[in-house]
Amino acid sequence: MSASLSARAVLLIAGLAGLVAPRAAAQAEQTAPGRSAYVLVRGAVAGVEGDSKSTFDDTGAGLGLEAGVRLSPRWAVALAWWAQDLPSLAQGFRIDGRVTGQGSQAYQGQALVRAHLLATTGRSWSPFVEAGLAVVTGQGTDAARNQAGDGTVWGFGPVGGLGLDVALSPRLGLRAGVQSTVVVPDVALDGADPSAFAREPTPPSGALADNIGYDVLTNVGVGVRYALPLRRPATLPRPGPPPLAETHGDAPAPTAPEPPPSEPATSVATASGRSPAGEPEPDAEAPTPAVEPAPEVTHLTCPTELAPGEEGAFAVAATAATSTTWDWGDGSTGARARHAFDTSGTYTVTATVQTAGGEASESCLVTVATTVAPTEITACRATPSPAALGKAITVEAETYGADTVSVDLGDGAEADALPTRHEYGRTGTFTVTVVATGAGGQDTCTTTVTVEDPSCAASLAPVRFKAGGTDLTAGAMTTLDAAADLLGRCSAVCLSIDGYATRAEGGAALAQQRADAVMFYLIGQGVEADRLQTSGPGGESVEDAGSPHRVEVSAGSCAGF
Question: Which CDD domains match (predicted)?
Fold first, then answer.
């Protein structure tokens, strides 16, 4: 089969489909197809992948014929045959030092199983996937593989594909898809077998090297499908009694004689097969009534969660249905596809569709639960802040859905009610944490409170030094002991230590040494070093003839220190 002939076949099939599609689509039944037999004629663009060949570097064409049975709306089985013209197979291969060529034709027979993914009522199209096995052979394999042409080489392999099936009418449809076949051994197509001949990686001009043991055939095409149902069609009802003979004037119309009560009514036929009244005699055999197939549920939609009293919407799709009954699992049934459950729980909802041919059912689970609002704290506060040492503070919070509360006051004390009052035994900044717990979970809120000692604001006397000296006097130590006691009581207080000296006695250097002497003494009294800060402006900024030999100690908040 030449490439031009295959291409014309593809164009012919596509043209026929274009002519019949508009008229057939107007008559298409929007239902999932039932059991039927069908034939499919299709054309395709074809290619082969393997060795140095590439699927679409030198494409060919293919013509296919398929016969199958649609077992149900979802499943079909089929036998298919392909004839393909693949120019890349005729390029030749380098085998044992010589270049061999072959014909470009390839043939394959297939056994397929096809799954239609969306074959439901109300849809005339469905995507599909297919899989199966194939037997493959190509022209020219005898001479290339066996040297003397001892016999045809057959290949085997799996088939896989996917595509779209469109029903234009109950019998006519279009199908488009892509399909690939893996062929083993390699020699079955290209006539060269890497296991039988020496591999030569550098082929001469115009020849390819065969270095792998399989090929892949690929078809991309479209076809026309014609189907015949596999059930007996409904027959027409028996004709009624013959009409009365026509009368004229006042003469009574003749009537057929009634049979005796003991004998069944019969018809008298003449030799010509007509009744005495001149009408055709009905058939002797009664018609066989049509058998309607049982329905199949294809899809069931249910809400997974509802609140008590909340109405949910349900839906069921089936291949055919004359009526639908819902069993809600709470002791009630109905035909309406909406329902509300009164109490919490898990319910099994069953939809049953009925036709004259039978019924089918499908079930789902619905959970009905009371919606619980989350437990929440919208605000928490501690007042007053700052608070004086020894004075009570009040902790308050606004909660919703809380069954219990707990309050961590930040100094080791706790409370289990709101509002709550508390007195702190020391100064500082404390973090207050409120936790609310309820059916809706848990929520947390934090706030801070600062506790101050009024005596912490007391001013400290300067520390005096002898001229030119850095040693602490007894009076200086007394002053610094009072400063250490203040820091011990007031945890939020820090000290700035500024040394002074005249320029004549050493200026800024001596001033810094005096400030350091004060700092080291306080550290020795148990004061944390990070609560002390020193500087020595000395003679650069201070000239006080009355008391230049001193250190100023200032108490302040540790915030930002």
Answer: PKD
